[in-house]
Amino acid sequence: MRLALLENMISLLYPEVCAACGNVLFRQENTICTKCHYLLPKTGYENQVDNPLAQIFFGRVAFHAVTACFFFSKKGKIQHLVHELKYKKNREAGYFLGREMGKILVESPLFNDVDFAIPTPLHPKRQHQRGYNQSEILAQGINQVMHRKISTTHLLRAVNTATQTKKSREERYENMKNTFVLKNATELEGKHVLLVDDVITTGATLEACGKILLEVPNIKVSVAAAACAG
């Protein structure tokens, strides 16, 4: 009785708010409100082999399939969720996005046979500064739905590159060259690997990751991001 009273007092003083719109959550709501959940802008790309995101990589890297699950727009719901994850240490926002990604991917014949999820790696120094890798949080959310292995030991970021902001696609790709290394590659032979990222912009980082992974014999590499520009 006292515990319930204490919890009610805490909720009154420090109410949980929606990570997408900032409104106070009702007791049965978690992370985001019901309205925002209903209005999340899904892309539908997960069942389209030649969707606009996949076309970014045509002729550059032979991904099996590419998708982003939601559209990202300035001041939109997905932007708020990604911002909460990356800059406000709101891991629950990331787990929520990952679970929503998992629900979408598990229903797609292009993605439902994935063996490994590999988060796009951060350099250890940057990960230490942030406290976690946001792509790994997304992968953990995906795993709660799809129950696939998560690997953070096969693909590693060996170089702490300069910021990609304001760079063109070609400049970003040059910035990414020789950035990643692959360990224990034989464990990935014949597997379907899912590269997980938060937002796809130019795709240069994913391209660099994909090229080194595709050196593994008989591997199949797909990409899933939480968001892309609408």
Poorly predicted spans: 3-13
Structural class: alpha/beta
CATH topology of the largest domain: Rossmann fold
Mean pLDDT over the full residue set: 90
- CATH architecture classification of the largest domain: 3-Layer(aba) Sandwich
Give the radius of gyration: 18 Å
Biggest sheet statistics: 5 strands, parallel
Fraction in beta strands:
15-25%
Strand line-up in the sheet with most strands: 1-7-6-2-3
Count of folded domains: 2
Overall helicity: 25-40%
Q: What does the model show?
A:
With 230 residues, the chain is α/β, with parallel strands linked by helices. It folds into two domains: 1-39, no CATH class; 42-229, 3-Layer(aba) Sandwich (Rossmann fold). It contains nine helices and seven strands. The protein has helices spanning 2-13, 34-39, 52-57, 77-87, 91-105, 124-130, 134-146, 169-176, 204-213, and strands at residues 66-72, 116-119, 149-150, 155-157, 180-182, 192-200, 220-229. A five-stranded parallel beta sheet has the order 1-7-6-2-3, sandwiched between helices. A two-stranded antiparallel sheet has the order 4-5. Strand 6, helix 9 (204-213) and strand 7 form a beta-alpha-beta unit. It is globular, with a radius of gyration of 18 Å. The chain starts with a helix and ends with a strand. Mean pLDDT is 90; it is low at 3-13.
